[in-house]
Amino acid sequence: MSPADTGSELLSAPERQRMAQAREGHWRPLPLVRSRHWRWFINVSVLLYIVLAWLSVDVNWSRVAQGMERGQEFVASFLSPDFSSRSGEILTGLWESLTMTFTATVIGVALAIPVGLGAARNIAPLPVYFFCRGIIAISRTFQEIIIAILFVTMFGFGPLAGVITLAFATIGFMAKLLAEDIEDTQKEPLEAIRATGGGWLQWINYAVQPQVMPRLIGLSLYRLDINFRESAVIGIVGAGGIGATLNTSINRYDYDTSAAILLLIIVIVLMSEYLSGYVRKWTQ
């Protein structure tokens, strides 16, 4: 009796059947839940939950019917977008959004770098680590539109509230990812700089910075893209930018202008995506 036959005797009948099917080329991975009864129970429970959740939703079907008609009008407006009737408002809103986006990204990244350094456990002392992690947690707790409402209340309507909102959100986003990249850096360069007697700044500049800089540039461009899209959202609550123009056009049912604004946003986001891809290749 061969060792393979001896080993097969230790297997259960279903496992021997799976081994035989694997030898014939008919193999499939094991299910997450082995028991067929448990699989039926889980599937029925999930289906029952979905049905009960759907029945608990109070749906106003007449309002849905009205909304479907308006939705069809809005979708149809993309076939004939109006770029000319309110071109001045559109260009002003776009320029304001681009200015907000660039300014907030620069400020946010500049402030996120020291916070990210302090939030990296392998290079920061424990009190600094907890303090910077607290800043990141606070920044990431609230969604941008909630922060925008707060800053609009504090500083009034306009792009200032938008810049502060986007910069505040950028700090948490960039600092968290930067800290994780620093914690994942190779230890050998860090130990080599320490062994030569280099100071803390030399340690950061020659051991940490070369490893995280390409990632930092890519994340900064990605955050620039996010901030432009968020500028269109926070403008709805009065934080300036193209979002305010879009909200105004929707409120007056000027769907042709709304479609033109959305198409411009899509074009700018696509351009930003291609630019960030080119820069990432250049930095690698």
Task: Tell me what you see in this structure.
The N and C termini lie far apart (57 Å). This protein is mainly alpha-helical. The chain folds into two domains: 3-56, no CATH class; 85-283, MetI-like fold. The protein has twelve helices and no strands. Helix 10 (200-234) packs antiparallel against helix 12 (255-283). Helix content is 79%, strand content 0%. The longest helix has 35 residues, at 200-234. InterPro entries: MetI-like, MetI-like_sf, PhnE/PtxC. This is ABC transmembrane type-1 domain-containing protein. It holds the Pfam family BPD_transp_1. Keywords: Cell membrane, Membrane, Transmembrane, Transmembrane helix, Transport.
Which CATH architecture of the largest domain is right? Answer: Orthogonal Bundle
Secondary structure tally, helices: 12
Class per helix and strand makeup: mainly alpha
Radius of gyration: 28 Å
- Written as H for each helix and E for each strand, in order along the chain, the element string is HHHHHHHHHHHH
Range of strand content: under 5%
* Low-confidence parts: 1-7
What count of structural domains? 2
> What is the highest CATH level, the class of the largest domain?
Mainly Alpha
- Distance, first to last CA: 57 Å
CATH topology of the largest domain: MetI-like fold
CATH homologous superfamily classification of the largest domain: MetI-like
Mean pLDDT: 81
Shape: flat
Helix content: over 70%
Q: Major β-sheet, in short?
A: none
The count of DSSP E runs of length 2 or more, i.e. the number of strands, is 0
Task: Put the structure in a nutshell.
One of its GO terms (molecular function) is ABC-type phosphonate transporter activity. With 284 residues, the protein is an all-alpha fold.
